[in-house]
Amino acid sequence: MTKRVTIKSIAHDLGISHMTVSRALSNSSKVREQTRRKVLQRAQEIGYVKSFAAATMRGEQTALIGLLLPNLVNEFYARFADSLAQHLEVEGQQLIIHLSGDDIDKERQALLKLREIQANRVVMVPAPGVYENQKGYLQDLQIIQLIRQREMNVAAGAVLVDDSGAIVQAVAHLADQGHRRIAYIGGDSLLSSGRSRLAAFLSGMRLAGLEPGADQMITERPSFAMGYHSARGLVDQGRVTAIVCGGFEISNGALHACLARGISLSGDISFIGFGDPSWYRWIGGGISTIKIPVTSLAAKTAEMLVKKDSAEKNYDFRHQLTAEFIRRRSS
Amino acid sequence: MTKRVTIKSIAHDLGISHMTVSRALSNSSKVREQTRRKVLQRAQEIGYVKSFAAATMRGEQTALIGLLLPNLVNEFYARFADSLAQHLEVEGQQLIIHLSGDDIDKERQALLKLREIQANRVVMVPAPGVYENQKGYLQDLQIIQLIRQREMNVAAGAVLVDDSGAIVQAVAHLADQGHRRIAYIGGDSLLSSGRSRLAAFLSGMRLAGLEPGADQMITERPSFAMGYHSARGLVDQGRVTAIVCGGFEISNGALHACLARGISLSGDISFIGFGDPSWYRWIGGGISTIKIPVTSLAAKTAEMLVKKDSAEKNYDFRHQLTAEFIRRRSS
DNA sequence: TTGAAAGCGCTAACAA
DNA sequence: TTGTTAGCGCTTTCAA
Question: Which residue is closest to D5 in terms of CA–C1' distance?
Fold first, then answer.
């Protein structure tokens, strides 16, 4: 293994002090032009790169942004990560991605790692749950919560989506079409998103003069499997004529279940998904959905991430974008 | 801003030397049990985490793995990243993801960043092209090329896919169905994958006794847009009855074009995609495709990544998994 | 069982 | 214009 290339090795090669090399590389004016050129050339030759570790140890900010997502398989998360990465690349920031699988312990682990590496900012979709012992897992971390919000007892920004309007609209639309037995599958109340989406669904039903039976509203820890099983149960029982989904994973799971059962979504049962994967429009003539503005979310997040570069003060804000009800053939 | 918590601050609080703290935290036997307990407790209290920067500067390996992908929007890449992240998490490794957009300059930039941060291993889907001046961009980096292979003039491992068999099979199948004018849309010859897939297509045609016209084989720098335009052109000209795709992005683009044109893929034109996004099976009765084993690829890659932890020697191997032709209604 | 010194790569502050 | 020193957080080596 060849030794690392450092300013000292350059200095040694050129018979000058490492300080001169440092100055030459950082465009200081206090270097003779000729010296600078020699240094730059030598640096090129032997492939010098500045040591991140040394810079960090001296107290420089790291330009590392942590991104903590449930997974990357769901197109929403993948698109968000993709879009955010592109924004950050422009700023010269690097993205460190951790997947939580919506598991709070993994989330804690990931935050620890991010703290070690001194990622100063973290964008996270919080997992459902609470920390057993909340000793400074978030210390030194500037946090932006995405989509969902959890009590953090620490200043934390939030980029959220107001999906109430879209959900109410979706329910109203179903009622208009004559649906009476409309089911809802969503996340449980551990997270802000679970609570508010359910509330929106109920409010939509009430506005339509409908009263949902308790067995028509399934709220549990959200996941693909949960969506799958819930939808299959509803379909098999045959007691509902429409399904509204309240989560990305849930939506895909539920859709999968319906398709696997051979249900016609433009006939047998009306279906309203959540999020808007590129392929929803091509399935069964098009899946109606609550569309979440991924790109805007990423742009807004990037903006927040960067803006605070200057004002290092309290990281505490709350932005809300709006979801949209997209009507296609499935409803 | 509170000052960083270090072993020195703990030492100061406890009125002992930072060396004792260091020993206590690293489970050295040379510490009095009582002292150790006090240190551990204090560390807990004030949320101490070991400094990544300091460790790195001392010469410790970083546990950072760079992942360089064209994008995360394509489900294949997203699944690969997801899967790899899960494997690596177990090993305590962190994934730093950079997106190249298949642009060689961005790729170069990303590699530089990875070198700065001392990510010792990098998994990359090489972008088409060559470096203008190849001065040690890869120095100190242990590289695994994924899917495609490019001349690197540096020892680099490779985890590839042998898709020839599947492509030949796909063409044979189309010929069996009576197709004579079969088109191919794939990447150009700058990359190994582009060359080998085209070769496989040609060989399949030859075996079926068919001679493809030059205008039926479109090979360019691969992208979604390229697939989209190529397919639209083919469809509009109406000179072919089947399309075979030779790339992930291309496949999605081409499929999109066909769907947007309202083509029936189980009637008008036969279509064989590339990669197997979860939704291909639900579109138009199911899209036939060349399926690439994502999960196995990630597993194999993780294995290589970890195995070499022990033997720090030459990073030079070549593994090949096999693609599979999946027949659905679109062909 | 504890502590002091040195060094990893770099730059601010001072000295020449 | 160039060089020397010190210190960021940590562990290895040597000394007490």
Answer: A19
